[in-house]
Automatic annotation (TrEMBL):
This is WG repeat-containing protein. PANTHER family: DUF3298 DOMAIN-CONTAINING PROTEIN (PTHR37841:SF1), GLR2918 PROTEIN (PTHR37841). InterPro entries: TPR-like_helical_dom_sf (IPR011990), WG_beta_rep (IPR032774). Pfam families: WG_beta_rep. Signal peptide: none annotated.
Length: 865
């Protein structure tokens, strides 16, 4: 209806004022009357007469756009107005004047074309299909509604793609309509869906392939983070290096190389810096890594310096950790406070973590950072490992981190990949094994299995376990046992038996008896009633007899069978009995036949580290000590024989004790009540007096002293008349027994105390230094021993090679370095000026820094060791 009104308005505007003769006048009147059929005949007749006839074609367009006319046809209307415009462009000047007189200027033609286009758009919009809008845009490329048509077409096409909701559908859309306003949304959905499609199996290779095929994806950061976590699961140098080389522009490149640095990379620092995006920063950190740090106070703020007094971190902090006040700082994480902010900084002073309450070092690579009462896992390179709160953590042997969260343990990689959610009583590792505990039961896994995911694969069936080196684990369940090997191979199935290992072979005891396992841990056929084994022998008993064989592969020892009994004595000796005859059998093939009343026992050294042992054969009229090859070392009537050292026997005859060596020679006569040995000195007690035999140099001191004799350098400290002194190896006095205490110092002097006064004396009893109130041996470094000495004017420092290092004038002397790399803090209190003067000295006694502090400042820097 709106279109009809519009046409009437246009006609009225065109023809309402002036009438003119000819076809145009007729057409105008006929159109006003609504005599459309006659108007069509007039227009067509005019068109037949004149080939170029813009006016008649204009009216034909009006007719075909008139909905009341039975020939209403938008496409025909558009064709006529288009041709009318073409005719107008070539019409004669006379024809143009006639049109103007009829009110038909070019603007009327353009307006009609627009009306046709609007009608065409209304028709297209009513159809609401992509094809209709495509057809409209093709036929009316310059239409006023072109933009709207494009939007509607694109909207319908995007809707279709959205219904399919596949990356292929969105790809087709933005390839077909690249200028569409919906392209950003289509690309966004495309990127999301193609990422999901590529990685729907959630495998590492899929993420890698996705980035290879779509390097410009907006999901690159996410994909790289997943690849980093998955590829570095095993925490191996090669995996971090692979990531950096594969994705050199990644936002994780610095993190990967920083973690390599703490992993203890096999390559040099130069190699690491070639991988690092900030090589100068890494070099700077590395240059400070091994420097021992200690605090200093300047302007009431703390800084850190090295042992040479070089400022490493300028004084900028109001507080530092109390642990740092006494120096010896080796950590690369430093806890400081500036203003009201507590932070962790590195050795360059760069902030690693802010708002920190405390830190706990788990290992060189792992820390717990406490914030707001909660603990969080951090890698030493400064990256937070997990967002989970932790109560405790421990680093496993391969660098994985077992962490405790809400009283349960989980497992995570340094790169942040969660291997096992918290849910276990404990998690431990040894070798390649990972051992999980839950409710008192254990599950055995390994690095490879855990790395592949264990969410449902653990079987908690074992009560306990025992590691056999790093490649085997023995597990227990009630009365059952099993043996599990590398790669979780079950070597011996779980059953009601006992599994034993003896150095080079395994054997099992079950209800049928004992059986051996071969090198593949498979059961060997024979069943034995008993097995006895030591380092040298293997004895096996079938129901009726024993058999014995050497484990040392000695060709001189044949397999013995049909034995009534076997007793394994030593690695080199065993006792066997066949019938009424007993024999000692040695690894060299020698045998000794024993009589019915003979007794044999093992005598060994009391020293824990000694493996020396002998046999004592007791017969009716004599006793014999027999060596490893069956040789008789001693053969006499003895009351008691014991092995004192690997080469000495303590022998008792009657009530007296003497020493004999392994060659049967008497070392000390049988005249002592007590003989024992410690650290190479043999204690000798005779008639209540004490002597000693120094086994290291053969010195024998007679039993005439009152306390156990000790070595004192090249001399011996002895006590006589209640006082101590020194004698030499010839029992001659070096220092008379007139002192209360002796302290070793160097090869020419020693410290002696008489009452409360110490002096330094030569071994000729000449006084080197006197009137010392106390001597406190401290520690040794670079081949020299240090001691704090206190004289009338204060504390000093001495070395046994250079004498007085620091004069005795200080109130206190502390070591703020380590024993391997010392730095001395020496303080003098100037009471008249209410100042404390602190001087830092190096090991050469050279001052490297000196400061004066007021009492309140001194309290802040003083180390209360």
């Amino acid at each position: 209806m709106a279109k009809k009104i519009l046409i009437i308005v246009l006609l009225t505007a065109h023809f309402g004022a002036t009438l003119w003769a000819g076809p145009l006048e007729k057409l105008q009147k006929l159109m006003e009357k609504g005599d459309y059929e006659k108007a069509e005949k007039v227009a067509r007749k005019s068109l037949e007469k004149e080939r170029v006839n813009p006016g008649s074609r204009y009216y034909m367009s009006l007719l075909f756009l008139e909905e009341r006319y039975h020939l209403y046809q938008v496409d025909s209307a558009y064709a006529y107005i288009t041709n009318a415009l073409s005719d107008l462009a070539v019409a004669t000047e006379e024809a143009r004047e006639e049109l103007m007189e009829a009110g038909l200027d070019s603007s009327r033609f353009v307006a009609q074309r627009q009306q046709v286009e609007l009608a065409a758009f209304a028709r297209t919009e009513s159809e609401m299909s992509i094809a209709a809008f495509e057809q409209y845009l093709a036929k009316f490329p310059e239409a006023v509604k072109k933009g709207r048509a494009i939007f509607m077409r694109d909207s319908l096409a995007f809707g279709q793609a959205s219904e399919q909701d596949t990356w292929q559908a969105y790809e087709r859309f933005f390839e077909e309509y690249p200028q569409s306003t919906f392209v950003p949304d289509a690309r966004s959905r495309y990127q999301s869906l193609i990422f999901k499609d590529y990685t729907k199996d959630d495998k590492l290779g899929s993420y890698i392939k996705f980035l290879e095929d779509h390097p410009d994806t907006p999901f690159r950061k996410m994909a790289e983070e997943i690849i980093f976590e998955r590829r570095t699961i095993l925490n191996q140098w090669s995996d971090y290096s692979w990531f950096v080389k594969t994705y050199p522009a990644s936002h994780l490149r610095k993190k990967a190389v920083d973690m390599l640095y703490y992993l203890g990379a096999p390559d040099s620092l130069q190699r690491l810096t070639s991988l690092h995006p900030q090589p100068d920063s890494l070099r700077s950190i590395a240059s400070l890594q091994d420097r021992l740090l200690l605090p200093f106070l300047e302007g009431n703020k703390f800084g850190l310096m090295d042992l040479k007094g070089v400022t490493i971190i300028p004084p900028a902090y109001h507080e530092i950790s109390e642990d740092y006040i006494c120096g010896g700082i080796t950590s690369d994480w430093l806890q400081v406070r500036a203003d009201k902010t507590t932070a962790v900084v590195n050795r360059l002073g760069q902030v690693i973590v802010s708002d920190v309450e405390d830190i706990k070092e788990i290992s060189a690579a792992v820390r717990i950072v406490y914030r707001d009462g909660e603990g969080f896992l951090y890698h030493s390179s400064g990256y937070q490992i997990s967002g989970l709160t932790v109560d405790d953590a421990q680093e496993l042997s391969n660098g994985w981190i077992a962490f405790k969260h809400n009283y349960e343990w989980g497992l995570i990689t340094p790169g942040g990949y969660l291997l096992a959610k918290p849910g276990y009583t404990s998690i431990a590792s040894q070798g390649s094994f990972i051992l999980f505990e839950s409710d008192g039961l254990f599950a055995i896994s390994d690095v490879s299995e855990v790395a592949q995911g264990i969410s449902s694969g653990l079987s908690f069936v074992y009560d306990d376990y025992e590691m056999i080196g790093d490649s085997l684990v023995q597990v227990f369940r009630e009365d059952q046992e099993s043996l599990i090997g590398r790669n979780l191979e079950v070597l011996v199935p779980l059953a009601a038996h006992q599994i034993y290992f003896d150095g080079s072979f395994w054997y099992v005891k079950d209800s049928e008896g004992y059986y051996l396992l071969d090198e593949f841990h498979k059961r060997k056929a024979p069943i034995f009633a008993e097995i006895e084994v030591n380092d040298g022998w293997l004895a096996l008993r079938k129901p009726d007899a024993w058999m014995l064989l050497s484990r040392l592969g000695q060709e001189s020892v044949d397999l013995l069978t049909g034995l009534d009994s076997v007793k394994l004595l030593l690695q080199h000796a065993a006792y066997v009995q066949r019938g009424d005859q007993g024999q000692l059998l040695f690894q060299n093939g020698l045998t000794r036949t024993l009589g019915a009343g003979d007794a044999i026992r093992v005598i060994g050294s009391q020293a824990r580290e000694s493996k020396a042992s002998y046999l004592l054969l007791s017969q009716a009229k004599k006793q014999s000590v027999i060596g490893a090859s069956g040789e008789v070392i001693l053969e006499t009537q003895l009351d008691e024989v014991a092995l004192l050292t690997d080469s000495l026997f303590r022998v008792k005859k009657g009530k007296k004790i003497g020493l004999m060596n392994t060659k049967g020679k008497e070392v000390l006569p049988f005249k002592y009540e007590v003989i024992d040995e410690k650290n190479g000195l043999v204690f000798l007690l005779q008639d209540g007096k004490i002597g000693c035999l120094d086994l290291n140099n053969g010195v024998l001191l007679p039993s005439e002293y009152e306390m156990r004799i000790q070595t004192f350098g090249q001399y011996y400290e002895v006590k006589k008349g209640g006082k101590v002194g020194l004698v030499n190896g010839a029992n001659k006095w070096m220092l008379p027994a007139e002192f209360d205490q002796l302290l070793k110092w160097n090869d020419t002097t020693c410290w002696v105390r008489s009452g409360t006064i110490w002096s330094l004396r030569t071994f000729e009893n000449e006084v080197v230094l006197d009137a010392i109130r106390s001597v406190r041996p401290w520690f040794s470094v670079d081949g020299q021993s240090l001691a704090i000495v206190v004289g009338e004017d204060g504390h000093g420092l001495m070395t046994d090679t250079r004498g007085i290092l620091l004069p005795m004038q200080y109130n206190d002397i502390l070591n703020l370095g380590t024993e391997e790399a010392p730095l001395f803090f020496a303080e003098q209190h100037l009471k008249t000026a209410a100042f404390f003067v602190v001087t830092y000295f190096d090991l050469a006694g050279e001052p490297i820094r000196s400061q004066a502090f007021r009492p309140e400042e001194y309290e802040r820097i003083y180390c209360d060791q």
